[in-house]
Amino acid sequence: MPVVQTTLDTCSWEEFKNLSHDLNIFALEFQTFVNKSTINPSRSVPLIQCNDQCHPEGLAANKERCLKRIYEVLYYYEHYTLELFGEGSLHKNSHVSLKINQMESHLRSISNKVKPEVANAITNITKKIHSLRRCLEKNGYKGNNTEEKDHPPITKSSIEYISGRFISVTPLIARVFALGDPSRHMSYQKK
User: Fold this and answer.
1) Please, what are the averages of pLDDT over each run of 10 residues along the chain (191 residues)?
2) Is this prediction's pTM over 0.85?
3) Residue 144 falls within a domain, yes or no?
4) Among 26, 41, 100, 155, whose CB has the most other CB atoms within 10 angstroms?
5) In the chain, how many domains are there?
């Protein structure tokens, strides 16, 4: 299945809203397959924090900082998923949509190790991450620190921990785009 890409130079805010909503739904469904782990592996996981200005007041004032951080987070999870579930033959310089298609084929080929519903969830999540990240990029919200870094080896506890972190970040991303254009969030009014 090819990765869905928009044909326009930019994505509409409605596309952002729909992609982020779908990503959140897929993540919530995926949650049923993941064991919870509180072990913090030696792998650094990007988070969206208060200083990223993803709260309504920050979005109304200047959405760029938040959207660039969301791009960086999505980039991390997209590449982590491809690293984790793709074949060892994935080339670093291959186009991401090609890597996703290779990952999907690889997951089907190891169906004796990965349940089909888990493989489908992983593929759907990766495709939504890629589409949402590409929309951010097309609209000029590409983050700064997106170079690939060497990571410690993947372990069962790191998979559970990072999956849990991913599942917890998708509702925030969906909330940012819930109104379409993030700058439409109402400003926080002090009393």
Assistant:
1) 50 92 88 66 75 88 92 89 65 65 75 76 88 92 65 65 85 90 63 40
2) no
3) yes
4) 100
5) 1
